[in-house]
Specification:
heterodimer, A: mainly alpha, three-stranded antiparallel sheet, 9% strand, B: mainly alpha, two-stranded antiparallel ribbon, 19 helices, 61% helix
Chain lengths: 192, 596
């Protein structure tokens, strides 16, 4: 047994140096050289000031912005320093109550809307930071945002289409709309 | 299931199976010390390292010394992770000034990462410094994966050897797997992940100014910083507004690549692979799913090559693939159904169940990821299993309950399935009244005792642990969801821990001394109880002569054997767990049908 101690300690230290220091520093170095923006978080800047990340969603509640997925992070939605989901089970009354409240908020902001309610607008994402909604969820909100900004629904739908991505490489994932990019475009092109 | 779901599943199997043969051969070459492309025989490179470490390369170990070496090596690893967490405030690379982690949480996490479980009672970005993540957790991602692989290599040597007393040198095996298999693949994929948006930096958390104002309630604090309460004991809150969002940063990509490749699964962030900085695009999601099964599948080829009969490996790979397709289709199907309770509220259910899921992955690729991660003892999640539909959650539990042998963890999956293969030939031998043989080795009483231990350790830990937790106040206190779902949360925790999976029904508040201690013990014994039994089996098999197949030998590379093997795995899983499953997700499904 004692004969095992020296190799155990030294093999552990050697492999720790390689995998715990050499490897992450090598990845950091390559990333910095080749993909500096991505390595730093794909930040979006307006006049040099960081206003968000292309990968991280933000909380929107004003009627003249498109709303994103509900977020279950604490103590505030879209807390990008403490990610997480609701972890509510399908039969949990708290889930049904939360969904009812979200539907009520959507209806209150747009009472005349009779479209079926898109499920991604009333269920919390896994990370609490989901930057996307489905094209159906964007379409559902076009009438409200158009009214709030006094735009034609057709012009707004065109803007939504600009911010819509299909499946990656035509195969992977789901079609989706980038909420922050859409709202930044709204704010810059159609300030109210 | 939608056409898209079938397409993704088919594409996944195609790419995976294309990678199996070259990688499996490569691993066999590495482990048998054959020359490698570009590195030659590596003697000139390795010898000085071994001399420095006091390792005699040619000195092979019997099974007991091999087991002791691995135990000692992993114990040192656990101690290092414990120490880093307890001291992180005073160590470098902690720009957020995160405090030292509590003793019970540090204990749990140290065991968790040393056993390749990567159960996480903590949230990464609010708990661990960059140094702890990189030098503690990510290192264990490599070393625990290497441990799993060398155990199955030792077992294969047991089958391949002729009357041998030794099964290899643990130090040489660990070093070679880490340096020639895990490290290069992880390095390549880490860079690819960055190209898609996974972050890799040591910056402090980044503040950005948001477009809209966020209104929320914060607890009101007294002068001492404690939350004020009203007369009923409720927390008093004050409305707050903010236009600042703080983005967590860190060296994520390097950890992410080995987290998937080593079937570890411990996320850099709390939301794991649902977090856009860990898994930003559908393409990274597909790559992460591939990385999980890559080595477990390739090891089937390694096995065939090392025992000198490729078709033996193909038979095991076929059994794994067939079981995987069944479980994956079920999980995707159930998550694509959606929650009928929401349909009553006027919600369009056609996209499936999206609570706890990311828009970019949808219900299909989340269901597939969930099936892969639970079959493979990986435990990374791209969606919250606690919010799955009752039968979707059932599938994730059931996959783990099969013993993590359908691809399974790196190394652990194949040695687990080989244990079941021995069990299967034993049962067949009983039926026809012959001494069972597998790969020319007679299976005798000692071998079957080790097989029985390896198969029974985890169910005992799962069922006893769950029973203790549901009958104690400390155990029940952690439940988040009411009704049978609460039992499922506890059952899931012990199933995940003892099978070294690491995923969770994460509503359970498990960062308590009770769960940190109980689950820590389940992880350690679930890992090393099996490993020691498997190495004992390897030693016993190695010592036997390899006898030639006769007319009475049961063939172990044809359809009949594949069917028998699948039957054994499914039957043992069902016998162990059906009663517990009936009380959890099955009851929940019946309740859902009655109220919806």
């Amino acid at each position: 047994m004692a004969a095992l101690v020296r190799p155990a300690l030294s093999v552990f230290l050697l492999l720790t140096l390689v995998t715990g220091i050499g490897y992450p520093l090598a990845v950091t170095g390559i990333a910095k050289l080749v993909f500096p923006e991505a390595a730093q978080g794909s930040l979006l800047r307006v006049d040099g000031t960081p206003v968000g990340s292309t990968l991280i969603g933000q909380n929107f509640t004003a009627p003249d912005y498109f709303w994103g997925r509900p977020s279950a992070t604490a103590p505030r939605p879209y807390n990008a320093a403490a990610s997480g989901g609701s972890n509510q089970g399908p039969l949990n009354p708290a889930l049904t109550d939360a969904v009812k409240a979200r539907i009520a908020a959507l209806k209150a902001a747009d009472p005349g809307n009779s479209l079926p309610i898109p499920i991604d607008l009333i269920t919390a994402s896994g990370s609490g930071l989901d930057p996307h909604i489905s094209p159906a969820a964007a379409h559902y909100q076009v009438a409200r945002v158009a009214r709030a900004r006094q735009l034609s629904p057709a012009a707004l739908s065109a803007l939504v289409a600009e911010c819509t991505e299909g499946r990656q490489w035509g195969v992977f994932g789901e079609p989706r709309v980038h909420v922050l990019k859409l709202n930044l475009a709204l704010a810059s092109r159609h300030p109210d | 299931m939608t056409h898209h779901a079938w397409l993704i599943l088919g594409l996944y199997l195609l790419v995976l199976l294309l990678a199996v043969w070259p990688l499996g051969r490569y691993i066999a070459n590495v482990m048998e010390g054959r020359p490698l492309l570009g590195l030659g025989l590596r003697g000139g490179f390795e010898s000085p390292l071994y001399r420095l470490c006091g390792v005699r390369r040619d000195e092979e170990m019997d099974w007991l010394h091999y087991a002791l070496a691995l135990l000692l090596f992993n114990l040192i690893g656990a101690l290092a992770v414990y120490a880093l967490q307890r001291l992180q405030l005073w160590l470098p690379l902690n720009p957020q000034g995160l405090p030292n982690v509590s003793p019970d949480s540090s204990f749990n996490t140290a065991i968790s990462f040393a056993t390749n479980t990567n159960w996480q009672g903590y949230g990464g970005e609010t708990t661990m410094s960059y140094l702890t993540q990189m030098l503690g957790l990510a290192v264990q991602n490599f070393l625990s994966a290497a441990t799993g692989i060398v155990v199955v290599i030792a077992l294969i040597r047991g089958f391949a050897g002729h009357s041998a007393q030794t099964i290899g040198n643990a130090w040489v095996d660990l070093s070679r797997v880490t340096l020639y298999v895990l490290l290069p693949i992880a390095l390549i994929f880490a860079v690819v992940l960055v190209s898609q948006g996974v972050i890799q930096n040591f910056s402090p958390y980044q503040d950005v100014t948001t477009l809209d104002v966020t209104r929320y309630d914060t607890p009101r604090l007294d002068a001492a910083g404690l939350a004020l309460q009203d007369a009923q004991g409720g927390v008093l809150t004050a409305p707050t507004t903010s236009r600042t969002q703080t983005l967590a940063m860190g060296p994520v990509a390097s950890q992410e690549a080995i987290k998937m490749l080593g079937t570890n699964g411990g996320g850099f962030f709390n939301a794991n692979s649902a977090h856009p900085y860990e898994n930003p695009t559908p393409l990274t999601n597909f790559m992460q799913m591939l990385l999980i099964f890559l080595i477990p599948a390739a090891l089937c080829t390694t096995f065939g090559r090392m025992v000198g009969d490729a078709r033996q490996g193909w038979a095991l790979l076929t059994a794994m693939t067939l079981m995987f397709i069944g479980m994956a289709v079920a999980a995707m199907h159930f998550e694509q159904q959606g929650n009928p309770l929401l349909a009553n509220l006027g919600v369009d259910l056609s996209p499936g169940n999206l609570e706890g899921k990311e828009t970019r992955f949808g219900s299909a690729e989340s269901g597939l990821f969930a099936a892969i991660t639970t079959l493979a003892s990986c435990g990374a999640v791209n969606s919250m299993h606690d919010s799955f539909m009752p039968l979707g959650g059932f599938m994730t539990l059931w996959n783990m309950m099969l013993g993590e042998v359908v691809f399974g963890g790196v190394g652990t999956g194949l040695y687990g399935l080989l244990v079941f293969a021995v069990m299967a030939v034993f049962i067949a031998g009983l039926m026809i009244g012959r001494t069972p043989e597998y790969l020319g080795k007679k299976i005798e009483a000692f071998d079957m005792k080790m097989v029985a231990i390896a198969i029974l350790v985890t169910p005992i830990l799962v069922l006893a642990g769950t029973a203790i937790a549901v009958t104690t106040a400390a155990g029940v206190a952690g439940i988040a969801n009411p009704g049978p779902h609460g039992l499922t949360e506890i059952l899931y925790a012990f199933t995940s821990a003892a099978n070294n999976n690491g995923s969770a029904f994460a509503g359970l508040s498990a960062n308590t001394p009770f769960y940190n201690g109980m689950l820590g013990a389940a992880m350690w014994f679930g890992r090393f109880g099996v490993i020691v039994a498997v190495l004992a089996l390897a030693g016993s098999l190695a010592a036997k002569p390899r006898i030639a197949a006769s007319a009475g030998t049961m063939p172990t590379r044809d359809v009949l054997f594949v069917v028998l093997l699948i039957g054994t795995v499914v039957l043992v899983g069902a016998l162990n767990y059906v009663p517990a499953l009936a009380l959890g997700p099955v009851v929940e499904q019946l309740m859902l049908r009655s109220v919806a």
